[in-house]
Specification:
- The protein is mostly helical.
- It contains 22 helices and two strands.
- It has a domain of 178 residues.
- The longest helix has 34 residues.
- The chain is globular.
- The C terminus is likely disordered.
Protein backbone atom coordinates (compact mmCIF):
# COMPACT_ATOMS: atom_id res chain seq x y z
CA UNK A 1 0.00 0.00 0.00
CA UNK A 2 2.80 2.44 0.88
CA UNK A 3 4.56 1.77 -2.43
CA UNK A 4 1.33 2.37 -4.35
CA UNK A 5 0.71 5.65 -2.54
CA UNK A 6 4.24 6.76 -3.32
CA UNK A 7 3.78 5.87 -6.99
CA UNK A 8 0.81 8.25 -7.30
CA UNK A 9 2.54 10.98 -5.23
CA UNK A 10 -0.31 10.75 -2.75
CA UNK A 11 1.07 13.14 -0.13
CA UNK A 12 1.50 15.92 -2.68
CA UNK A 13 -2.24 16.28 -3.37
CA UNK A 14 -4.27 14.58 -0.66
CA UNK A 15 -4.82 17.49 1.74
CA UNK A 16 -5.93 20.00 -0.93
CA UNK A 17 -8.12 17.25 -2.40
CA UNK A 18 -9.81 16.61 0.94
CA UNK A 19 -10.64 20.31 1.19
CA UNK A 20 -11.72 20.62 -2.45
CA UNK A 21 -13.93 17.56 -2.76
CA UNK A 22 -16.70 18.78 -0.39
CA UNK A 23 -16.78 22.07 -2.31
CA UNK A 24 -17.20 20.11 -5.54
CA UNK A 25 -19.92 18.10 -3.81
CA UNK A 26 -21.72 21.27 -2.73
CA UNK A 27 -21.63 22.57 -6.32
CA UNK A 28 -22.89 19.20 -7.54
CA UNK A 29 -25.86 19.39 -5.18
CA UNK A 30 -26.60 22.92 -6.38
CA UNK A 31 -26.61 21.72 -10.00
CA UNK A 32 -28.87 18.82 -9.01
CA UNK A 33 -31.23 21.28 -7.32
CA UNK A 34 -31.52 23.27 -10.55
CA UNK A 35 -32.03 20.20 -12.73
CA UNK A 36 -34.57 18.57 -10.39
CA UNK A 37 -36.58 21.68 -9.54
CA UNK A 38 -39.68 20.32 -11.30
CA UNK A 39 -39.41 16.80 -9.92
CA UNK A 40 -41.71 15.66 -7.10
CA UNK A 41 -40.39 16.57 -3.65
CA UNK A 42 -40.20 12.92 -2.62
CA UNK A 43 -37.93 12.09 -5.54
CA UNK A 44 -35.66 15.09 -4.87
CA UNK A 45 -34.85 14.32 -1.25
CA UNK A 46 -34.28 10.65 -2.02
CA UNK A 47 -31.81 11.48 -4.79
CA UNK A 48 -29.93 14.21 -2.95
CA UNK A 49 -29.22 12.05 0.10
CA UNK A 50 -27.65 9.41 -2.18
CA UNK A 51 -25.48 12.03 -3.88
CA UNK A 52 -24.34 13.48 -0.55
CA UNK A 53 -23.57 10.04 0.82
CA UNK A 54 -21.58 9.16 -2.30
CA UNK A 55 -19.43 12.29 -2.01
CA UNK A 56 -18.69 11.64 1.65
CA UNK A 57 -17.83 7.99 0.98
CA UNK A 58 -15.34 9.02 -1.70
CA UNK A 59 -13.85 11.56 0.73
CA UNK A 60 -13.51 8.85 3.40
CA UNK A 61 -11.94 6.34 1.02
CA UNK A 62 -9.26 8.65 -0.34
CA UNK A 63 -8.44 9.88 3.18
CA UNK A 64 -7.66 6.34 4.37
CA UNK A 65 -4.37 6.43 2.48
CA UNK A 66 -3.11 8.88 5.10
CA UNK A 67 -3.05 6.03 7.61
CA UNK A 68 -0.48 4.09 5.53
CA UNK A 69 1.46 7.04 4.12
CA UNK A 70 2.03 8.64 7.52
CA UNK A 71 5.39 7.98 9.21
CA UNK A 72 5.02 8.56 12.97
CA UNK A 73 8.79 8.69 13.49
CA UNK A 74 9.43 11.42 10.91
CA UNK A 75 10.14 14.96 12.08
CA UNK A 76 8.25 17.87 10.63
CA UNK A 77 4.94 18.11 8.84
CA UNK A 78 3.82 15.39 6.46
CA UNK A 79 1.68 15.66 3.31
CA UNK A 80 2.59 19.36 3.45
CA UNK A 81 1.59 21.83 0.74
CA UNK A 82 2.61 25.49 0.79
CA UNK A 83 1.24 27.89 -1.83
CA UNK A 84 0.86 31.70 -1.99
CA UNK A 85 -2.66 32.91 -1.22
CA UNK A 86 -2.65 36.63 -0.27
CA UNK A 87 1.03 37.50 -0.71
CA UNK A 88 0.70 41.21 0.10
CA UNK A 89 -0.48 40.25 3.58
CA UNK A 90 1.91 37.35 3.96
CA UNK A 91 -0.96 34.84 4.04
CA UNK A 92 -0.30 31.45 2.47
CA UNK A 93 -2.26 28.29 1.78
CA UNK A 94 -0.03 26.21 4.01
CA UNK A 95 -1.25 22.81 5.21
CA UNK A 96 0.28 19.71 6.75
CA UNK A 97 -0.33 17.06 9.39
CA UNK A 98 1.26 15.32 12.33
CA UNK A 99 0.00 12.28 14.25
CA UNK A 100 -2.50 14.36 16.20
CA UNK A 101 -4.08 15.90 13.11
CA UNK A 102 -4.04 12.54 11.31
CA UNK A 103 -6.38 10.87 13.80
CA UNK A 104 -8.81 13.80 13.79
CA UNK A 105 -8.89 14.00 9.99
CA UNK A 106 -9.76 10.31 9.74
CA UNK A 107 -12.36 10.67 12.51
CA UNK A 108 -13.96 13.49 10.49
CA UNK A 109 -13.98 11.78 7.12
CA UNK A 110 -15.25 8.48 8.54
CA UNK A 111 -18.01 10.00 10.69
CA UNK A 112 -19.48 12.27 8.01
CA UNK A 113 -20.98 9.49 5.82
CA UNK A 114 -22.40 7.93 8.98
CA UNK A 115 -23.96 11.28 9.88
CA UNK A 116 -25.61 11.36 6.45
CA UNK A 117 -27.01 7.86 7.01
CA UNK A 118 -28.31 9.07 10.36
CA UNK A 119 -30.30 11.76 8.51
CA UNK A 120 -31.51 9.33 5.85
CA UNK A 121 -35.24 9.52 6.59
CA UNK A 122 -35.54 12.52 8.90
CA UNK A 123 -34.41 15.33 6.56
CA UNK A 124 -37.05 15.93 3.88
CA UNK A 125 -37.36 19.72 3.83
CA UNK A 126 -34.74 21.70 1.93
CA UNK A 127 -32.50 18.63 1.53
CA UNK A 128 -30.16 20.29 -0.98
CA UNK A 129 -29.43 23.13 1.44
CA UNK A 130 -28.99 20.73 4.36
CA UNK A 131 -26.44 18.46 2.69
CA UNK A 132 -24.64 21.42 1.11
CA UNK A 133 -24.17 22.88 4.57
CA UNK A 134 -22.76 19.57 5.82
CA UNK A 135 -20.19 19.66 3.01
CA UNK A 136 -19.17 23.25 3.76
CA UNK A 137 -18.95 22.28 7.42
CA UNK A 138 -16.57 19.48 6.46
CA UNK A 139 -14.29 21.95 4.65
CA UNK A 140 -14.04 24.10 7.77
CA UNK A 141 -13.43 21.22 10.16
CA UNK A 142 -10.73 19.60 8.03
CA UNK A 143 -9.19 23.00 7.38
CA UNK A 144 -8.77 23.62 11.09
CA UNK A 145 -6.87 20.36 11.52
CA UNK A 146 -4.45 20.91 8.61
CA UNK A 147 -3.80 24.68 8.65
CA UNK A 148 -0.22 25.86 9.17
CA UNK A 149 -0.97 29.53 8.54
CA UNK A 150 -2.75 31.39 11.33
CA UNK A 151 -5.02 33.39 9.01
CA UNK A 152 -5.95 30.24 7.09
CA UNK A 153 -6.67 28.57 10.43
CA UNK A 154 -8.94 31.43 11.48
CA UNK A 155 -10.81 31.40 8.18
CA UNK A 156 -11.43 27.67 8.49
CA UNK A 157 -12.41 28.10 12.15
CA UNK A 158 -15.09 30.60 11.14
CA UNK A 159 -16.24 28.74 8.00
CA UNK A 160 -17.71 25.94 10.09
CA UNK A 161 -19.64 28.37 12.33
CA UNK A 162 -22.29 29.50 9.83
CA UNK A 163 -23.23 26.04 8.46
CA UNK A 164 -23.74 24.63 11.96
CA UNK A 165 -25.74 27.71 12.97
CA UNK A 166 -28.07 27.11 10.02
CA UNK A 167 -28.27 23.34 10.56
CA UNK A 168 -29.45 23.91 14.13
CA UNK A 169 -31.59 26.97 13.36
CA UNK A 170 -33.45 25.54 10.33
CA UNK A 171 -33.68 21.79 10.97
CA UNK A 172 -33.57 21.73 14.76
CA UNK A 173 -36.23 21.27 17.42
CA UNK A 174 -38.77 23.65 18.93
CA UNK A 175 -36.17 25.93 20.57
CA UNK A 176 -33.79 25.77 17.63
CA UNK A 177 -33.42 29.54 17.11
CA UNK A 178 -32.49 30.12 20.75
CA UNK A 179 -29.95 27.28 20.64
CA UNK A 180 -28.49 28.39 17.31
CA UNK A 181 -28.09 32.03 18.35
CA UNK A 182 -26.54 31.02 21.67
CA UNK A 183 -24.08 28.73 19.87
CA UNK A 184 -23.20 31.49 17.39
CA UNK A 185 -22.70 34.24 19.98
CA UNK A 186 -20.55 32.14 22.32
CA UNK A 187 -18.29 30.94 19.52
CA UNK A 188 -18.05 34.30 17.75
CA UNK A 189 -17.09 36.27 20.85
CA UNK A 190 -14.24 33.92 21.65
CA UNK A 191 -13.11 33.86 18.03
CA UNK A 192 -12.89 37.65 17.74
CA UNK A 193 -10.41 37.82 20.60
CA UNK A 194 -8.37 35.08 18.92
CA UNK A 195 -8.37 37.11 15.68
CA UNK A 196 -6.89 40.09 17.54
CA UNK A 197 -4.18 37.83 18.94
CA UNK A 198 -3.44 36.40 15.48
CA UNK A 199 -3.06 39.89 14.01
CA UNK A 200 -0.70 40.83 16.84
CA UNK A 201 1.41 37.74 16.21
CA UNK A 202 1.50 38.52 12.48
CA UNK A 203 2.68 42.04 13.23
CA UNK A 204 5.38 40.74 15.58
CA UNK A 205 6.48 38.20 12.97
CA UNK A 206 6.72 40.92 10.31
CA UNK A 207 8.91 43.03 12.59
CA UNK A 208 11.14 40.04 13.35
CA UNK A 209 11.62 38.98 9.73
CA UNK A 210 11.05 42.16 7.76
CA UNK A 211 8.27 40.62 5.65
CA UNK A 212 4.61 40.04 6.52
CA UNK A 213 3.88 36.46 7.54
CA UNK A 214 1.39 34.44 9.57
CA UNK A 215 3.33 31.19 9.19
CA UNK A 216 2.88 28.91 12.19
CA UNK A 217 6.44 27.61 11.93
CA UNK A 218 7.97 31.06 11.60
CA UNK A 219 6.06 32.47 14.56
CA UNK A 220 6.87 29.40 16.64
CA UNK A 221 10.60 29.64 16.00
CA UNK A 222 11.26 33.37 15.71
CA UNK A 223 8.72 35.46 17.62
CA UNK A 224 9.67 36.15 21.23
CA UNK A 225 7.32 38.21 23.42
CA UNK A 226 7.50 39.64 26.90
CA UNK A 227 5.73 37.65 29.65
CA UNK A 228 2.77 40.03 30.02
CA UNK A 229 2.03 40.08 26.30
CA UNK A 230 2.41 36.32 26.13
CA UNK A 231 -0.11 35.90 28.92
CA UNK A 232 -2.69 38.12 27.21
CA UNK A 233 -2.27 36.39 23.85
CA UNK A 234 -2.55 32.97 25.46
CA UNK A 235 -5.74 34.14 27.17
CA UNK A 236 -7.25 35.19 23.83
CA UNK A 237 -6.49 31.85 22.19
CA UNK A 238 -7.45 29.87 25.29
CA UNK A 239 -10.86 31.56 25.59
CA UNK A 240 -11.75 30.73 21.98
CA UNK A 241 -10.71 27.12 22.47
CA UNK A 242 -12.31 26.80 25.93
CA UNK A 243 -15.68 27.85 24.51
CA UNK A 244 -15.41 25.29 21.74
CA UNK A 245 -14.31 22.39 24.01
CA UNK A 246 -16.48 23.45 25.96
CA UNK A 247 -14.87 23.86 29.37
CA UNK A 248 -16.78 24.72 32.50
CA UNK A 249 -18.16 27.46 32.85
CA UNK A 250 -18.31 28.13 29.08
CA UNK A 251 -20.34 24.96 28.44
CA UNK A 252 -23.89 26.28 28.68
CA UNK A 253 -24.38 26.54 24.91
CA UNK A 254 -23.66 22.85 24.40
CA UNK A 255 -26.71 21.11 25.95
CA UNK A 256 -29.09 23.45 24.12
CA UNK A 257 -27.29 22.99 20.81
CA UNK A 258 -27.20 19.20 21.18
CA UNK A 259 -30.84 18.86 22.20
CA UNK A 260 -32.20 21.12 19.47
CA UNK A 261 -29.89 20.02 16.63
CA UNK A 262 -31.01 17.33 14.20
CA UNK A 263 -29.35 13.95 14.66
CA UNK A 264 -26.50 14.61 12.21
CA UNK A 265 -25.87 18.00 13.82
CA UNK A 266 -25.54 16.40 17.26
CA UNK A 267 -23.24 13.70 15.88
CA UNK A 268 -20.98 16.24 14.17
CA UNK A 269 -20.88 18.47 17.24
CA UNK A 270 -19.92 15.60 19.55
CA UNK A 271 -17.67 13.65 17.22
CA UNK A 272 -15.73 16.43 15.54
CA UNK A 273 -16.47 20.06 16.41
CA UNK A 274 -15.75 19.76 20.13
CA UNK A 275 -12.36 18.29 19.19
CA UNK A 276 -11.44 21.53 17.49
CA UNK A 277 -11.18 23.23 20.89
CA UNK A 278 -8.89 20.61 22.40
CA UNK A 279 -6.89 20.49 19.16
CA UNK A 280 -6.47 24.26 19.37
CA UNK A 281 -4.87 23.95 22.81
CA UNK A 282 -2.49 21.24 21.61
CA UNK A 283 -1.57 22.83 18.29
CA UNK A 284 -1.56 26.55 19.11
CA UNK A 285 -2.06 27.60 22.73
CA UNK A 286 0.61 25.42 24.34
CA UNK A 287 3.36 25.51 21.67
CA UNK A 288 3.02 29.23 20.87
CA UNK A 289 2.74 30.38 24.51
CA UNK A 290 4.39 27.68 26.65
CA UNK A 291 5.46 30.02 29.44
CA UNK A 292 1.91 31.32 29.86
CA UNK A 293 0.34 27.86 29.59
CA UNK A 294 2.71 26.48 32.23
CA UNK A 295 2.42 29.51 34.49
CA UNK A 296 1.54 27.89 37.87
CA UNK A 297 -1.55 30.06 38.35
CA UNK A 298 -2.84 29.57 34.80
CA UNK A 299 -2.13 25.85 34.81
CA UNK A 300 -3.79 25.35 38.19
CA UNK A 301 -6.86 27.33 37.07
CA UNK A 302 -7.32 25.30 33.87
CA UNK A 303 -6.82 21.98 35.66
CA UNK A 304 -9.28 23.05 38.35
CA UNK A 305 -11.88 23.96 35.71
CA UNK A 306 -11.23 20.65 33.94
CA UNK A 307 -11.82 18.69 37.15
CA UNK A 308 -14.96 20.71 37.94
CA UNK A 309 -16.21 19.99 34.43
CA UNK A 310 -15.54 16.27 34.82
CA UNK A 311 -17.48 15.96 38.06
CA UNK A 312 -20.13 18.59 37.32
CA UNK A 313 -20.95 17.19 33.88
CA UNK A 314 -21.36 13.70 35.31
CA UNK A 315 -23.54 14.83 38.22
CA UNK A 316 -25.81 16.95 36.03
CA UNK A 317 -26.13 14.08 33.54
CA UNK A 318 -27.26 11.89 36.42
CA UNK A 319 -30.44 13.93 36.97
CA UNK A 320 -31.45 14.58 33.36
CA UNK A 321 -34.95 13.37 32.34
CA UNK A 322 -34.11 13.88 28.63
CA UNK A 323 -31.85 11.13 27.25
CA UNK A 324 -30.31 13.42 24.64
CA UNK A 325 -29.48 16.07 27.22
CA UNK A 326 -27.96 13.36 29.41
CA UNK A 327 -25.59 12.44 26.58
CA UNK A 328 -24.83 16.14 26.00
CA UNK A 329 -23.76 16.69 29.62
CA UNK A 330 -21.67 13.53 29.48
CA UNK A 331 -19.62 15.31 26.79
CA UNK A 332 -18.76 18.07 29.26
CA UNK A 333 -17.40 15.40 31.60
CA UNK A 334 -15.46 13.51 28.92
CA UNK A 335 -13.88 16.64 27.47
CA UNK A 336 -12.80 17.60 30.98
CA UNK A 337 -10.64 14.45 30.94
CA UNK A 338 -9.06 15.68 27.71
CA UNK A 339 -8.19 19.06 29.21
CA UNK A 340 -6.80 17.42 32.34
CA UNK A 341 -4.59 15.16 30.24
CA UNK A 342 -3.30 18.04 28.13
CA UNK A 343 -2.35 20.32 31.02
CA UNK A 344 -1.00 17.53 33.22
CA UNK A 345 1.63 17.47 30.44
CA UNK A 346 3.11 14.01 30.57
CA UNK A 347 3.47 11.84 27.50
CA UNK A 348 0.99 9.34 28.94
CA UNK A 349 -1.60 11.97 29.86
CA UNK A 350 -1.36 13.76 26.49
CA UNK A 351 -1.68 10.48 24.61
CA UNK A 352 -4.59 9.56 26.86
CA UNK A 353 -6.21 12.92 26.09
CA UNK A 354 -5.85 12.26 22.36
CA UNK A 355 -7.39 8.80 22.80
CA UNK A 356 -10.30 10.19 24.83
CA UNK A 357 -10.80 12.72 22.03
CA UNK A 358 -11.11 9.98 19.42
CA UNK A 359 -13.09 7.55 21.54
CA UNK A 360 -15.52 10.20 22.70
CA UNK A 361 -16.15 11.02 19.06
CA UNK A 362 -16.93 7.38 18.28
CA UNK A 363 -18.97 6.46 21.37
CA UNK A 364 -20.88 9.68 21.94
CA UNK A 365 -21.51 10.06 18.23
CA UNK A 366 -23.02 6.57 18.32
CA UNK A 367 -25.16 7.47 21.34
CA UNK A 368 -26.61 10.47 19.50
CA UNK A 369 -27.33 8.29 16.47
CA UNK A 370 -29.17 5.79 18.70
CA UNK A 371 -31.12 8.57 20.41
CA UNK A 372 -32.12 9.83 16.96
CA UNK A 373 -33.25 6.38 15.86
CA UNK A 374 -35.37 6.02 18.99
CA UNK A 375 -36.82 9.51 18.55
CA UNK A 376 -37.87 8.75 14.98
CA UNK A 377 -39.91 5.82 16.29
CA UNK A 378 -41.53 7.40 19.36
CA UNK A 379 -41.01 11.16 18.93
CA UNK A 380 -39.94 11.58 22.52
CA UNK A 381 -36.58 11.71 24.27
CA UNK A 382 -37.92 11.51 27.81
CA UNK A 383 -36.46 8.52 29.65
CA UNK A 384 -39.68 7.94 31.60
CA UNK A 385 -41.60 7.38 28.35
CA UNK A 386 -39.78 4.09 27.76
CA UNK A 387 -39.06 1.04 29.90
CA UNK A 388 -38.55 -2.58 29.00
CA UNK A 389 -38.23 -1.98 25.26
CA UNK A 390 -35.47 -4.61 25.02
CA UNK A 391 -38.34 -7.06 24.68
CA UNK A 392 -39.49 -5.49 21.41
CA UNK A 393 -36.19 -4.06 20.05
CA UNK A 394 -33.50 -6.54 21.14
CA UNK A 395 -30.94 -5.48 18.51
CA UNK A 396 -31.29 -1.82 19.45
CA UNK A 397 -31.02 -2.71 23.14
CA UNK A 398 -27.84 -4.73 22.53
CA UNK A 399 -26.14 -1.96 20.56
CA UNK A 400 -27.17 0.71 23.07
CA UNK A 401 -25.74 -1.38 25.89
CA UNK A 402 -22.40 -1.92 24.12
CA UNK A 403 -22.05 1.75 23.21
CA UNK A 404 -22.99 2.84 26.73
CA UNK A 405 -20.38 0.52 28.23
CA UNK A 406 -17.78 2.00 25.91
CA UNK A 407 -18.77 5.51 27.00
CA UNK A 408 -18.43 4.45 30.65
CA UNK A 409 -14.94 3.15 29.89
CA UNK A 410 -15.36 -0.55 30.65
CA UNK A 411 -12.10 -2.48 30.00
CA UNK A 412 -12.16 -4.11 26.58
CA UNK A 413 -13.95 -1.14 25.03
CA UNK A 414 -12.40 1.92 23.42
CA UNK A 415 -13.33 4.24 26.30
CA UNK A 416 -11.07 2.53 28.82
CA UNK A 417 -7.59 3.08 27.43
CA UNK A 418 -7.87 6.85 27.06
CA UNK A 419 -9.22 7.56 30.53
CA UNK A 420 -6.74 5.10 32.04
CA UNK A 421 -3.79 6.87 30.41
CA UNK A 422 -5.09 10.30 31.42
CA UNK A 423 -5.44 9.27 35.05
CA UNK A 424 -2.10 7.42 35.20
CA UNK A 425 -0.24 10.21 33.41
CA UNK A 426 -1.95 13.00 35.37
CA UNK A 427 -1.20 11.35 38.69
CA UNK A 428 2.52 11.97 38.08
CA UNK A 429 2.13 15.76 38.07
CA UNK A 430 -1.40 16.42 39.39
CA UNK A 431 -2.21 13.63 41.87
CA UNK A 432 -5.08 15.41 43.63
CA UNK A 433 -6.81 16.28 40.35
CA UNK A 434 -6.35 12.71 39.10
CA UNK A 435 -7.91 11.19 42.24
CA UNK A 436 -10.91 13.52 42.17
CA UNK A 437 -11.41 12.92 38.44
CA UNK A 438 -11.38 9.17 38.94
CA UNK A 439 -14.67 9.49 40.85
CA UNK A 440 -16.35 10.61 37.63
CA UNK A 441 -15.86 7.10 36.26
CA UNK A 442 -18.26 5.93 38.97
CA UNK A 443 -20.69 8.74 38.18
CA UNK A 444 -20.56 7.83 34.47
CA UNK A 445 -21.52 4.27 35.31
CA UNK A 446 -24.35 5.59 37.47
CA UNK A 447 -25.98 7.92 34.94
CA UNK A 448 -25.68 5.61 31.93
CA UNK A 449 -26.55 2.31 33.62
CA UNK A 450 -29.51 3.91 35.38
CA UNK A 451 -30.69 5.33 32.04
CA UNK A 452 -30.29 1.90 30.41
CA UNK A 453 -32.36 0.30 33.17
CA UNK A 454 -35.20 2.78 32.75
CA UNK A 455 -35.17 2.67 28.95
CA UNK A 456 -34.65 -0.98 28.04
CA UNK A 457 -34.48 -3.22 31.10
CA UNK A 458 -37.53 -2.37 33.21
CA UNK A 459 -40.94 -3.94 32.66
CA UNK A 460 -42.65 -3.16 29.37
CA UNK A 461 -45.39 -1.21 31.09
CA UNK A 462 -46.47 1.25 28.38
CA UNK A 463 -48.64 -0.14 25.55
CA UNK A 464 -47.42 2.53 23.10
CA UNK A 465 -43.94 1.00 23.22
CA UNK A 466 -45.09 -2.45 22.17
CA UNK A 467 -45.16 -1.50 18.49
CA UNK A 468 -41.66 -0.01 18.26
CA UNK A 469 -39.74 -1.47 15.33
CA UNK A 470 -36.22 -2.79 15.78
CA UNK A 471 -33.24 -1.54 13.79
CA UNK A 472 -33.49 -1.94 10.04
CA UNK A 473 -30.64 -3.00 7.74
CA UNK A 474 -29.56 0.58 7.03
CA UNK A 475 -29.29 1.37 10.72
CA UNK A 476 -27.45 -1.87 11.45
CA UNK A 477 -25.02 -1.17 8.61
CA UNK A 478 -24.49 2.33 9.98
CA UNK A 479 -23.67 1.03 13.46
CA UNK A 480 -21.47 -1.94 12.52
CA UNK A 481 -18.35 0.18 11.74
CA UNK A 482 -18.79 2.03 15.03
CA UNK A 483 -19.09 -1.21 16.99
CA UNK A 484 -16.00 -2.52 15.19
CA UNK A 485 -14.07 0.61 16.18
CA UNK A 486 -15.21 0.26 19.80
CA UNK A 487 -13.90 -3.29 20.00
CA UNK A 488 -10.74 -2.69 17.96
CA UNK A 489 -9.53 0.33 19.93
CA UNK A 490 -10.55 -1.34 23.17
CA UNK A 491 -8.73 -4.60 22.54
CA UNK A 492 -5.82 -3.41 20.37
CA UNK A 493 -5.19 0.36 20.66
CA UNK A 494 -1.50 0.04 19.74
CA UNK A 495 -1.79 1.24 16.10
CA UNK A 496 -3.51 4.47 17.13
CA UNK A 497 -1.12 5.06 20.02
CA UNK A 498 1.86 4.55 17.70
CA UNK A 499 0.58 7.22 15.32
CA UNK A 500 0.27 9.81 18.09
CA UNK A 501 3.15 8.91 20.43
CA UNK A 502 5.93 10.94 18.82
CA UNK A 503 3.73 14.02 18.37
CA UNK A 504 2.70 13.84 22.03
CA UNK A 505 6.27 13.31 23.20
CA UNK A 506 7.57 16.24 21.14
CA UNK A 507 4.84 18.51 22.46
CA UNK A 508 5.64 17.65 26.08
CA UNK A 509 9.39 18.03 25.55
CA UNK A 510 9.04 21.34 23.75
CA UNK A 511 6.62 22.95 26.21
CA UNK A 512 8.63 21.82 29.24
CA UNK A 513 11.88 23.08 27.73
CA UNK A 514 10.64 26.47 26.52
CA UNK A 515 8.50 27.19 29.59
CA UNK A 516 11.63 26.65 31.67
CA UNK A 517 13.50 29.17 29.45
CA UNK A 518 15.58 26.43 27.82
CA UNK A 519 16.71 27.50 24.32
CA UNK A 520 14.83 25.91 21.47
CA UNK A 521 17.10 23.46 19.73
CA UNK A 522 15.34 22.66 16.51
CA UNK A 523 12.69 24.17 14.30
CA UNK A 524 10.70 20.96 14.41
CA UNK A 525 10.94 20.44 18.16
CA UNK A 526 7.25 21.19 18.71
CA UNK A 527 6.28 18.56 16.19
Amino acid sequence: MTAFLSSINYNAWILPALLLLPIVGALGLWVHALLSAKDPADKRWREVRVLAFAFFVVEALISLGLWWSFDPAAAGWQAAVDLPWIPQWGVRFSVGIDGIALTLILLTTLMMPLAVLGSWTSIRTKPHAYYTLLMLLTVGMLGVFVSLDLVLFYVMWEIMLVPMYLVIGVWGGERRLYAAIKFFIYTMLGSLLMLVAILYLGSAASQAGGVPTFSYDYILNNVRLDPTTTLWLFGAFALAFAVKVPMFPFHTWLPDAHVEAPTAGSVILASIMLKMGTFGFVRFALPLFPSAAMNPTVRSLIIALAVIGIVYGALVALVQPDFKKLVAYSSVSHLGFVMLGIFALTTESVQGALMVNINHGVSTGALFLLVGMLYERRHTRMIEDYGGIAKVVPIFATVLTIVSLSSIGVPGTNGFIGEFLVLVGSYKTQPVAAVISATAVIFAAAYLLWALQRIIYNKLSKPENEGIKDLNWREIGLLVPILAAIVWMGVYPKPVLEKTEMAARRLVTYVEATSANTPQTASNSAR
